[in-house]
Design goal:
It is built from three helices and eight strands. With 143 residues, the chain is an alpha/beta fold. The strands form two sheets. A four-stranded mixed sheet has the order 1-4-3-2, covered by helices on one side.
Length: 143
Amino acid sequence: MATINPYLNFDGNAEAAFNFYKSVFGGEFITFQLLKNAPDGDNLSVEEQNRVMHVSLPISEGFVLMGSDIVPSMGHKLIKGNNSYISLNTKTKEETERLFNALSEGGTIQMPLAMTFWGSYFGMFADKFGTQWMVSQQHDKQG
């Protein structure tokens, strides 16, 4: 059985983004590698050598957030869009609010936290790094 882990790309600020996510979710990086440690990494500019080649952070049981920086000298271009979100499903209203408030700080709220017609306490936003998030706590029909 395969697992699914979201993978995020950044343009030079992957380390800052993942340190921010670590401050919200806690835990420790499973992997944190810079491009300077890759084969031929010394052929890159100093700025690119200090970009993240790969980082992974467990943020809940069985769920690992992964990412890296693009490498402009290799023709990489970062295009931000609304074609993907990370959806977090929480167990309590308090956790929903904590994650929503912490992750959205400095970002753009697209839909404030509110009860929805489909029975969830739900909100959407882009964080300060441009990553799109949905935070949801499912409620039963009574509450």
